[in-house]
Amino acid sequence: MKPLISLFSFYIKSSIHVALGVTGLVFVTSIEFNISLPSALYWVTFLGTITGYNFIKYAEIAGLQHKSLIGSLQNLQVFSLMVFCLLVYFLSQLDLVVITYLGMLGFLTLLYVIPIINHKNFRSMVGVKVFIVALVWSSLTVLVPVYYTTCAILDLFLCFAQRFFIVLALIIPFEIRDLPQDKRILVTFPQLLGVQKTKLIGGLLLFFTLLLEGLKQPFVLSITVPLFIVCGLIAFCLYLSGVEQSKYFASFWVEGIASFWAIMLWVTYFILA
Predict the structure, then answer these.
(1) 50 closest CA partner among 23, 24, 90
(2) Which domain range does residue 145 map to?
(3) Secondary structure of 90-157 in the HEC alphabet?
(4) What is the pLDDT of residue 18?
(5) Total domains present in the chain
(6) Torsion over CA of 49, 120, 188 and 54, rounded to 10 degrees?
(7) By the 8 A CB rule, do 9 and 128 touch?
(8) Is the pTM of this model over 0.90?
(9) What is the pLDDT of residues 61-73, one digit of tens each?
(10) Spacing of C-alpha 270 from chain mean position
(11) What is the 3-state composition of the chain as percent helix, strand, coil, each rounded to the nearest 5?
(12) Cβ atoms within 10 A of the Cβ of 266, count?
């Protein structure tokens, strides 16, 4: 049992779980716009998310404890290096335009950690953190896939806005969880509004997401129903969110909603069709 627990812990800490979610969102976009995406883009999304998240989470720790890294962190570093090498390989299979755009998103990710203004990075700037995360996720999972097709500007805008709102709502349980540890200068939603009002903000974001769905033409039931289910699951997680959470509530269950969304669409289009 202990090896399974250790393996599951590594699965979460190594960012594999969140990377599957982000990759799943790329698949969701491919279904919504009926795009046939190169497999390399899925791999780049998956491997790039692992690389970016592990850099953000562990770069500072590794720098402070370089000579005395604990075993688990050393394993994560080796794993991240292997993932990065694979990332470079799959990047070489994409168009230069896509690589350039991904490079811009990667640069934003670096600025999340590297100080740029008054010795502050995006992570420590007042009220910036969640919007940068939502921007990068939405751009990676909507704008990049849409490069491979032609679509109406309105459809693109609606999809991007929906994805932005959903990611913001997904971040809220993490913001609530981290409330006791976050510095006051960050001015997170829970710090500014309190837990209950922050949950209400999340609910409003989901409401606007569904409202935007009604503006899309044509209406596709097989896409809309999974979206309603996803918004319902996120709303339920918001309701359950608190400062005291189970260890894997946010990092497994909340982050798993994006993957579940992709699975629902996959079942609808490739199994039931």
Answers:
(1) 23
(2) 2-271
(3) HHCCCCHHHHHHHHHHHHHHHHCCCCCECCECHHHCCCCHHHHHHHHHHHHHHHHHHCCCCCCHHHHH
(4) 97
(5) 1
(6) 20
(7) no
(8) yes
(9) 555 444 445 556 7
(10) 25
(11) 75, 0, 25
(12) 16
